[in-house]
Write a structure and sequence with these properties.
mainly alpha
């Protein structure tokens, strides 16, 4: 599993060694939520928590492998149930190209996982196409 190296008993805050100050009182619920989620042990984060943090580019070094493991584990169920959690997949697919170029093994893993899915919604398919297009040289090299 990709996330075997992640110390899931620790929080993003602990792993990064960077304690953020409390958010300002007039902060949005998103900002307050992200601050709070950074303090939770990774093993206590649910899929929605992962989506929120990844969507804000927080803790990607640790959270992308965890999310990719979840996506790979649940991919075969999509063929059986006809349903897949598009929100986490979308958050992962839409990270900046530079994130994937700095971790090509994760990009290849995501590409392989997406290949397992059979009934993507049109908006997720566009995100898959954009992901693959922006990394076509890297993914082609990884599939040799």
């Amino acid at each position: 599993m990709l996330a075997d190296f992640v110390e899931k008993d620790r929080s993003i805050e602990e792993l990064e060694g960077d304690r953020w100050p409390e958010p300002p009182e007039d902060s949005t619920s998103l900002v307050r939520g992200v601050h709070a989620l950074r303090r939770r042990p990774i093993k206590a984060l649910g899929v929605e928590d992962l989506r929120r943090l990844i969507g804000q580019d927080v803790g990607l070094r640790w959270l992308l492998p965890v999310a990719l493991d979840i996506l790979r584990k649940t991919a075969p169920d999509e063929a059986v149930t006809g349903w897949y959690d598009d929100d986490l997949l979308s958050a992962v697919l839409t990270r900046k190209e530079s994130v994937w170029r700095s971790a090509p093994e994760l990009a290849t893993h995501l590409d392989e996982t997406v290949t397992m899915l059979t009934d993507l919604s049109p908006y997720i398919q566009r995100e898959v196409d954009d992901f693959r297009s922006s990394l076509s040289d890297l993914l082609r090299r990884g599939n040799r």
